[in-house]
Write a structure and sequence with these properties.
Elements (H helix, E strand, L loop, with lengths): L6 E6 L6 H11 L3 E6 L2 H8 L7 H9 L6 E4 L9 H7 L3 E5 L5 H10 L2 E5 L12 H5 L6 E6 L6 H4 L4 E8 L13 H11 L8 H12 L10 H8 L3 E6 L7 E5 L2 H8 L2 E5 L17 H20 L2 H18 L6 H11 L4 E4 L7 E5 L25 E3 L11
Parallel strand pairs: 1-2, 1-4, 2-3, 4-5
Antiparallel strand pairs: 6-7, 7-8, 8-9, 9-13, 10-12, 11-12
Helix pairs in contact: 8-9, 9-10, 12-13
Length: 404
């Protein structure tokens, strides 16, 4: 007598259905009889902060038409766990996600219900290019940015206590990073309003200043730090030196291929969840010279580690940044997020958060591949000259002679 066929559950938006979706569903169906929860129009708009291109009825029709799908329906909830009611009703044996959709909350729900949780890597079908809804829908080439160390020193109320640097990395839009996840998504949206799909040629200091002004119009109560605008506009890895102003006094860049390739191999992103829209990290702060100095010293160590290409030192500096930030802003890490960070610290050289309050991503530094994590591609200068120096000072124009 043959063993009963397992029930397999998958959820997703499946907007602009493409070969990557089909490949993922086919792989999930290898685990048993496949049931799919398709995100409702309301759920997509809530999660993506944009309406879907195709209606829920059209998306459901296309998913149900696939031979690997036993049945599909529209999810009944909203938010990250919009499928929860359907999951509890169907009670599958296996829940399958891809590495972009992996989340601690999904894993916890499956453990509660006794459901096997499987994370698949994004693998294109043989002979076909890698596809994502982002690449089809969002043709924008404007980068995001990660701050590796020193974040918060771009705010005068921190750098006035002790001057220091912020180390930012400009990364290409190979993934659709979630809003409110600490990847400068709102500043990137401002860049798209100004320039469209691509940053135009020209002086990066002038463009970064324009973007910073657009992001912070007159009357705005909380000023977004300039590291966001600079990190998007300046390619490579950049050291921004702050001394009590909104704009750095100097900008130094690392753009050589050997260092950028080395750094790409070390940075891993583990998706968490976007922080709530009403969340404020500025309550219960404790900012003084010793705490700001610790943050500045972590940034200095990070920069030295990058110049030396010292992975272990980079991990220590990144984790030192997190520790210094939490001492100043206790709300940056909640107890559940601290538990996650501890788990990732045990298997990596160092970790920090991309977003305040546990939102966004765990940024892990590791020489070994980390399962179910995203990789990054660092933006390169389009016209980089062969043999360019490892680290260059910004020219004495707007971006380096800019005391407030």
């Amino acid at each position: 007598m043959s063993a009963p066929v397992k029930k397999v559950f998958v959820s997703g938006c499946f907007d602009l259905l493409h070969s990557g979706h089909v490949r993922f569903l086919q792989a999930a169906a290898q685990y048993g009889e496949l049931y799919v929860a398709v995100g409702s129009d309301e759920a997509v708009a809530d999660l993506k902060r944009r309406p879907p291109r195709c209606s829920q009825d059209e998306r459901l029709f296309m998913v149900k038409a696939l031979g690997c799908v036993a049945d599909a329906g529209i999810s009944r909830g909203t938010g990250l766990l919009d499928f929860e009611e359907d999951l509890r009703r169907i009670r599958p044996d296996v829940f399958v996600v891809n590495e972009d959709g992996d989340s601690p909350r999904k894993l916890a729900l499956c453990r509660e219900l006794g459901i096997e949780y499987v994370v698949l890597r994004r693998e294109p079908a043989p002979g076909l290019p890698a596809r994502s809804t982002t690449s089809l829908r969002n043709l924008s080439e404007i980068p995001y940015r990660i701050d590796l160390a020193g974040g918060w020193l771009d705010q005068p109320f921190v750098s006035q206590c002790w001057p220091g640097a912020v180390i930012v990395v400009s990364i290409l839009p190979t993934h659709e990073f979630a809003l409110r996840s600490g990847m400068a998504t709102s500043t990137r949206q401002s860049a798209e309003k100004i320039w469209g799909r691509r940053i135009p040629p020209g002086d990066p200091g002038e463009k970064a200043r324009l973007l910073f002004a657009c992001e912070n119009p007159p009357g705005k109560e909380e000023i977004s730090g300039s590291q966001d605008a600079i990190g998007i506009v300046y390619p490579g890895v950049n050291r921004l030196e702050y001394r009590g102003g909104y704009w750095p006094e100097t900008i130094r860049s690392v753009v050589d291929e050997a260092t950028l390739s080395w750094l790409e191999r070390l940075i891993w992103l583990k998706p968490l969840v976007p922080r709530p829209g009403e969340f404020s990290v500025l309550g219960e702060t404790s900012i003084d010279a010793p705490r700001a100095r610790a943050l500045a010293e972590a940034a200095d160590a990070c920069w030295t580690a990058i110049l030396d290409r010292d992975a272990a030192a980079l991990g220590r500096a990144v984790y030192g940044t997190l520790q210094a930030q939490v001492r100043m802003f206790p709300r940056m890490v909640t107890p559940p997020i601290q538990s996650i960070l501890d788990d990732w610290l045990a298997i990596s050289l160092g970790v920090k958060l991309s977003g305040a309050g546990g939102g966004g991503y765990v940024v892990a530094i590791s020489e070994k591949p980390l399962d179910n994590c995203l990789r990054v591609s660092i933006a390169r200068p389009e016209l980089a000259e062969p043999g360019s120096p490892l680290s260059v000072d910004a020219p004495p124009t707007a971006e380096s002679d800019c005391r407030k």
